[in-house]
Amino acid sequence: MRVDIIEHVDGFEKIRRDWERLYHEDPEAHAGLSWERLRKHFSRAGRWSVLALGDEQSGEGYCAFLPFEVKTYLDESSGLFCDEILMLGNCDTGRSGMLCTPVLEGDAVDVCAGCIGMENWARMKMEWLEPVSPRLERLLRAFATERFLCEEAGGVTCPGQGDRYHSLLISTRSGRNLRGCLNRRSIDFVFERAMDLHARGEFDRAEAAYHQVARSAPRHIHARYALAQLCCDRGDYAEAEQIYRGLLSLMPQGDRILHRLGDAQMGQALYRDASETFENLLGRHPHLGVIRYKLAVCLLAAGQREAAIAVFESFEDVVSDDPDHMRCKAKSREALWYLGTLADSQSRHADGQTPEGAEEARHPSPAVRRANPLGLAKPLLRPSLPRGVSTHLHARASLYGGFGSRLKH
């Protein structure tokens, strides 16, 4: 049998004729499987699918349907997100959750069970009425293997009917998703939850969730980018640098990633490496004042005073009314004034004059020498941009970082 997976309302509308034909032919059809009811549910549900089975050779209409939904929960014991499969036609009914041509019942159940087994999930709840139908019993037997734990989850009496249906919880032995990966339908959902946890300062849980997304979708750029930002928030700039470099191998022209790489290098006091990164980025975007200013700061911190002064002075050659550029330009003038004052002080000292405050500068305390080995003023070595500048000099991460919150993958 061929299997098509329908996941959008417009696709579900296209199979309405086949669906209603099977609904009238199938003796196990019930109101929970009506096209109208499911159409209403799908219009507001987020992560649902319909397995549509057809004859692989004839290519004609479908002969079986199985609708299901994926829910995600946080397993408190492991701190990981896990997925649950809900059989929409089975929940709260105790009846078969599929429609099919009666003569193809056995094959249809086996194919559906195989498809469900290929999904990534940690648990699935099944319900049945007594006596259980052969169709549902065959589906249940498909999961009575060593891969799964099957345990009774109680029973409920249907209000007004007196019928009692039983619940069976089918779960993986590890309690985690099959194959250790998120269900593909849950990747964006978990990424959103990870960002919420990150924003609330729950770094451990956020990190675990980012790793789950990255492992389940290796090319999910947003998750890896956010993970690097989380590393920066924790002060682990070396790990962040490695992640950013990995991202640049996928997106060589990723300017925001390159910018964050420079920030991570600054966070490690790798000023020479950071200056090379910012110089590369400035070559692409010569009008970005924040990058120009960071380049000058890194050059100065790396001991390249004359090169730093040249970059500070280059602000005068750039005409821009961008607020960040104007603030950085003012900050660069302040830096030049300080460097000029320092040079004048040193010149006077060479001539034998001792300007006010020079004695303290000549013999700083050991603590000051350790904190400032280059002898530079702290505001220049670890500068902060003027109030209102949106991009910080060091690796302080925004959760979105200009990328947005989703990625096609």
UniProtKB/TrEMBL annotation:
Q: Which GO terms describe its biological process?
A: cell division
For the region Disordered, give the residue spans: 346-370
Protein name as catalogued? Uncharacterized protein
